[in-house]
Design brief:
By secondary structure, the chain is of the alpha/beta class. The protein is about 35% helix and about 10% strand. It has eight helices and six strands, in the order ααββααβαβαββαα. The N and C termini lie far apart (about 40 Å).
Length: about 240
């Protein structure tokens, strides 16, 4: 971005037109054309996916990238797939999400005190963005965080999201920031990735992918514990 955006609306208007990564552009558009049989009557979003949630959020949830037939289809983070079902059900139990599921952009879902985003905004083949693609997308996340003026607690879903927050924090602080190795339940204290000044908390969870949730690597109880800890720290827990 050539200059800092004035609002999330301005940033997102530029974001959805991004074509920086040829491989990701080709894949997201191919998926949108060919579609999955179950969704053949739908019009896929097929573009970069903006963040979603409360602009005044104290808690920022950082995933990986849109799913090919989830957010790449619906146009909203973690919407229209089982990963989203798992995530928003937990956020609803914590009193953050207004409903336990997320089916469409216009389904009425709202978040209280939380914002959901990702370091990569286009669906990658096999859910595996390259390091170069993650780096190419970095400025969108940096710009977004700068506009989330109340953000003070982060919850990373997976190692890619965890590393992205640490990397941005290091860049803002002007030095490499030491952090614990990623693992479920890990808690890091970092310089604020918005400014490089002060401190924020970064909680880590295994990603809410089916690969983790259907094998029992990540259970609802395990995830609820991390969500509740992050929500309490951010002051958005209903407890």
């Amino acid at each position: 971005m050539s200059s800092a955006p004035r609002s999330l609306k301005v940033l997102n208007a530029a974001l959805v037109e991004c074509r920086r990564c040829p491989r990701l552009v080709e894949w997201r558009e191919e998926v949108a054309r060919e579609k999955r049989r179950a969704y053949r009557s739908e019009t896929y979003w097929g573009r970069p996916v903006p963040g979603f949630g409360d602009p005044a959020a104290a808690l920022v949830i950082v995933g990986l990238a849109p799913a090919a037939h989830g957010a790449n289809r619906t146009g909203r983070m973690f919407t229209g797939d089982r990963s989203g079902d798992f995530l928003y059900a937990a956020l609803h139990r914590a009193g953050i999400a207004s409903q336990p599921d997320s089916r469409r952009r216009d389904d009425g879902l709202t978040l209280r005190g939380a914002y959901v985003t990702a370091p990569v905004r286009c669906a990658p083949p096999e859910n595996k963005p390259t390091p170069a693609e993650i780096e190419a997308c970095r400025s969108w996340l940096e710009g977004e965080l700068a506009l989330l003026r109340n953000a003070r607690v982060y919850l990373a879903l997976g190692k890619t999201g965890y590393d992205a927050v640490v990397r941005i924090s290091s860049g803002r602080a002007g030095k490499r920031v030491a952090s614990p190795k990623f693992g479920h339940g890990v808690l890091a204290t970092l310089p604020d990735p918005r400014t490089g000044k002060g401190e924020v908390k970064l909680y880590a969870s295994y990603h809410v992918s089916q690969q983790n949730t259907q094998t029992g690597r990540l259970t609802p109880a395990m995830f609820d514990a991390v969500v509740e800890a992050a929500a309490r720290e951010a002051g958005v827990s209903r407890a």
